[in-house]
Amino acid sequence: MSLKNVRLEVMQHLEKDVDSLIEKYLIPVDSIWQPTDFLPNSESEKFYDEVREIRELSKELPYDFWVVLVGDMITEEALPTYESWLMDVEGVGQVERNAWSKWVRHWTAEENRHGDVLNKYLYLSGRVNMREIEKTTQHLIADGFDIGTDRDPYKNFVYTSFQELATYISHNRVAKIAKEKGNKQLAKMCRIISGDEMRHHHAYAEFVERIFTVDPSQMMMAFHYMMKQKIAMPAHFLRESGGKISTAFEEFSNTAQRIGVYTSADYVDILQKLIERWDIANIKDLSDEAEKARDYLMKLPARMMRLAERMKIPENSYQFKWVEPA
Q1: What is the residue range of 273's domain?
Q2: What is the model's pLDDT at position 245?
Q3: 259 with 72: CB under 8 angstroms?
Q4: What is the CATH number of the domain that holds 19?
Q5: Domain count of the chain?
Q6: Mean of the pLDDT values across residues 243-255?
């Protein structure tokens, strides 16, 4: 049987449990928070006062903070690309709907709220150039991207396990900075977004755990493949109007590292957490090739941390079109 057919068989085998996993990791629409819970109520007479408060508090937050918040929002707004990518994964029934496509649609519906609330907040803050942000968002969706997973569910679930934990870290750190600057409402908003990301991380990590129990060698090879080529974050494909993709991402990454929102050390820490979560050291019944892949993965965090420690981040901020200079 071909590897593709084996993966498809495994996805079909696991499909019977997806409905229970939806109940475990996703929250019903009538129970979960909505963007308006964190924004001024436009029907209220206090609306203008609440907007003024947002604008006043926004003045206390530095330039680099706004760059990171904008980058996080744009990444969340590119959701159509992520959904279409996952809907094309082997075993996900996009036309003849199955439990896996139900997962993708429900996950997308939860994620959609993140970009929505951040977008509205940025618009009300008065600190950013929304038209430039909107152009970057449109570029990100129109350009599309290749995260190196093909249609392989194993690789895609490694990617989402990693990426959801990374976005948890980013939103959580932004929340802490906002709180330190006295912006409690923004802090609460970013913290609750980070909570969603952590739930989603646990879901995708459990998908991988379940695959390890039935197809350990190929799951190990998929993990090895994704980490050897490195996880390309969605923000990697950012570009400003008239700009190149690589430049915008590099400067956004430098900004996030400079204020400690997401660093190269965090990347290594996520890898280590996944190795421990999936108990990579103790996976049984591996092929010779998968054993070599395991050895590579076990040594990788230490090797990558040495590289991370040698990285130097520019002290000066890059001038994005998204945010006016401080």
Answers
A1: 3-310
A2: 62
A3: no
A4: 1.10.620.20
A5: 1
A6: 80
